[in-house]
Design goal:
Elements: E1 18-23, E2 26-31, H1 46-64, H2 70-88, H3 98-111, H4 115-130, H5 137-147, H6 149-158, H7 164-184, H8 186-191, H9 199-204, H10 219-239, H11 248-270, H12 287-301
Antiparallel strand pairs: 1-2
Length: about 300
């Protein structure tokens, strides 16, 4: 299950803006474009959720924030990975990231968190620094497998849900959230020199990555975004049955996560896929719609 929407965001968050956040009831200052407050998070796992969030958020900042050169970012991420190994060996955290790794070590020890999932996240952050092109959708989904899906699987682990079907559906929801974030931030990402549309999708619409410009929507770019949004929506609906596998608070949180992702995609459709010029967001006005649709998911299950 992703930690997104009303929990942590499983998707990467480019185009961020400064704001005060609350993670599982803890108020912090940081950059994020998804709300991270979750009153639905059970108290027993809140410290682990907060620890995972800070681990991923700090690594994301090493990859994206500031003006450091790529070589320095990769060196910092390697040092960060070394600290992850230290904390799993029972060694005290070094001062630089003690606020991250001291609570994370406690969460790993208490909940036996799967360590490969944490390393997968670091692999994805390193890949972002290198900023490669994606030849096809399979390559982009492989990135999602490491950038988004591990967070969902970590949450499933905390909720003691280990079924193969649940993991498959969680991966679909997390990847869909990641893709929705990409298409939401299509223009801002281009301005930062990043394009997550695959080379195969670009070619299918007669486009080349070098030709894309922020603010320059064309019939071809709109058609591209229409197809990409449809792909993300189909993936989200593929994973949506997971909401009926998870009981209580977890199921309700995931309902809101799924509906939030679908709502972003709906807004891209509504603006005629002009994603190079406009960036849709969710606000307070969307809350009643999301709640109503979450209730509808409950009715459908019955």
């Amino acid at each position: 299950m992703p930690i997104g929407g009303t929990g942590l965001s499983a998707a990467r968050t480019s185009g961020r803006r400064a704001r005060r956040e609350t993670i599982a009831g803890v108020s912090i200052d940081h950059y994020e474009n998804f709300p991270v407050a979750s009153r639905l998070c059970p108290p027993a796992i809140r410290p682990a959720v907060v620890a995972i969030y800070h681990f991923a958020r700090t690594a994301d900042d090493l990859a994206d924030e500031g003006d450091a050169a790529s070589a320095q970012r990769l060196a910092d991420l390697q040092a960060y990975r070394d600290e992850l190994r230290r904390c799993t060996q029972g060694r005290p955290a070094a001062p630089r990231w003690a606020r991250v790794f001291t609570p994370l070590a406690g969460a790993i020890d208490r909940h036996a968190l799967p360590l490969p999932l944490l390393h997968d996240l670091l692999d994805a952050f390193e890949q972002d620094v290198r900023n490669p092109p994606y030849p096809d959708r399979a390559a982009l989904l492989d990135y999602c497998r490491r950038s988004a899906n591990p967070v969902g699987r970590l949450m499933l682990h905390l909720y003691a849900e280990h079924g193969v079907a649940a993991q498959r559906e969680s991966d679909a929801v997390c990847s869909a959230l990641q893709l929705a974030n990409f298409w939401q931030d299509f223009g801002p990402d281009l301005a930062r020199g990043r394009c997550y549309a695959s080379e195969a999708d670009l070619r299918a619409h007669g486009l080349a990555r070098a030709e894309l410009r922020p603010g320059a929507d064309t019939p071809a770019t709109r058609a591209l975004l229409r197809d990409l949004v449809a792909w993300a929506r189909a993936l989200m609906l593929q994973g949506a049955p997971l909401v009926h596998r998870l009981p209580g608070r977890a199921g309700w949180e995931l309902r809101l996560v799924v509906q939030g992702g679908l709502r972003i995609l709906e807004k891209i459709d509504a603006m005629q896929h002009a994603a190079l010029s406009h960036r849709p967001t969710l606000g307070a006005a969307d809350a009643p719609r999301l709640a109503w649709r979450a209730l509808g998911m409950r009715a459908a299950a019955r």
